[in-house]
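Structure tokens please, single chain.
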Amino acid sequence: MKMKMKMKSSVLGLAFVFLASVSAFSQCKEVIWPENKAKAEESVAIYSDALKQGHYRGATAGLQWMLANAPKWQTKLYIDGTEIYNKLATAEKDPVKKQVLVDSLMMLYDMRITNCGDEANVLNRKALYALAFNGQNKAKTADVLALYDKVFVLSGNNVQDNNLVPYMQAVQLNVALLKNLTEDQILQRYEKISEIIDIKTKKALAENKHDVVERLKQYKSTIDDILPKCGVKIDCDFVRKNMAPKFRQNPSDIAMAKKVFQFMTMGGCIEDPLWLEAAEVIHKTSPDYGLAKNMGKIYAKNGNMEKAEVLINESVTLATSPKDKSDSYILQGDLLSQRGSKSSARESYRKAASADASSKEGLEKIGDLYMGAGKDCAKQVSMAEDRLIYIAAYEMYAKAGNQQKMAQARGQFPSVTELFELNWKEGETKSISCWVGETVVLRTRGKE
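Here you go.
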């Protein structure tokens, strides 16, 4: 009972300090000592030493004296204070005592704002601890979400990255524990987080911070996973019913186009005509590599090869990384191959291999072109000559490192007898006269 009273007096003491320390706005950038500087220096020394040694309980007395008598000493006072109370709250097992410590921790963040300002930055920090300690406390869950709402209003696009996913987690906890949010309220917050991630991603791309881009993609994937857990069923029918009418009323509304695109993608509806309509609007406003590539693939699947080629060619120019550039050249080659332009397809595959040396797909694709060139190159005069294309294919597969396809090509090499008929010998070089145009070293089946 005495310990419980002691804990309560601790938080009440901080509350009194908080009320007593309200004064003019200050950033606490310069050290401001109280009248009793000697006592202040002693208090700082005592709590700092205890903090260094991990004696967090022993640090509270000196800390509280400073909070009561020198609340504008410097920002370090609040940084140290939140560390002390965070460690105490984390270690405490008794739920009642733990909550007293958590309340003290939250109050310290408020005191810092009152005395030192920097509200948006401090609330970004406070929100993380509020979620960790109070998120699953039904008496506090709604307050945590309200805090996150405020953080995102104050911070806007500059909200700290490590608060993007926790905001959505706060939404999920409110739905699960309190059932206090409508579907619209859930979606509004989800869309806000998604929009900020999109803005942050574009900024990171412009600054060539690819590690940040990948991290933001992971955040987006996580909030996408959380949304259905909040009871919002995202599927094609949902988008058609709730968003398509508004989008079609004003198809130039980029914000609505992004919503349609986002939810159609989440619902697995990327082959739906509505997805393409929204993607076209977004891409026209802000050309994007991924959009150009994926739209091109879908148009190709739907048989609109002309539109597909335009978009895939555009994706080549929009690609910023070697891998993306190589992927687009591969798709470009595939489309040319389907059209029968095999020589042009080969050129695209070569560009793919050149763009990304770590990728061997372009070389393998050239091997595939050669393996399928039988009808193009067969003169039907000599089996040995008609089989030269398979040696060319083999050599491409060898460069690509594909053992299985090398074996398949080797199985089509000329036989010893077929070479003998032309008075050819293994090891000689021969040119292939059709579009393949390669020069190969003669080999026979069954030999490397």
